[in-house]
Design a protein that fits this description.
- This protein is an alpha+beta fold.
- The chain has 5 helices and 5 strands.
- The chain has one domain.
- Helix content is 30%, strand content 28%.
- A hairpin with a 4-residue loop joins strand 3 and strand 4.
């Protein structure tokens, strides 16, 4: 399902989302699309598990650009364990998991079992 910038921002506040989006700057040898497991849930990211398992650290400075003007959503990438930009010009919501104990159940049964190679394949769509 295609999503707008405002809808995606709202979803990410209380969920972990699997999204697929077009790369803003295509890279030779890489697919034109990228897939990401991400969230902006303060409750999840600031929890003790969020800080230790997801290695979340709050930003230390503000952005030097306005993501809204570039049609971007800044979010925490669970695999890369860092903030990333999603271009919502061509963004699809693949799946959602509530950012609560249901996410940790999903994380321990599916995500933590993935090898580095499987995570790379996931991101390549």
């Amino acid at each position: 399902m295609r999503v707008s910038q405002n809808v995606l921002k709202t979803i990410l506040q209380s969920n972990v989302a699997e999204v697929k989006f077009a790369r803003r700057d295509p890279k030779p040898g890489f697919p034109p699309w990228r897939r990401m497991l991400c969230t902006n849930s303060g409750q999840l990211l600031n929890s003790s598990k969020g800080r230790s398992v997801l290695r979340y650290t709050p930003p230390v400075q503000s952005l030097k650009y306005n993501p809204d003007m570039k049609n971007l959503v800044v979010t925490w990438d669970i695999f890369m364990q860092d903030y990333r930009n999603i271009t919502v010009d061509r963004c699809e919501l693949v799946s959602l998991v509530p950012a609560n104990d249901q996410f940790w159940e999903y994380f321990t049964t599916a995500v933590i079992q993935m090898t580095s190679q499987e995570k790379l394949e996931f991101m390549k769509v």
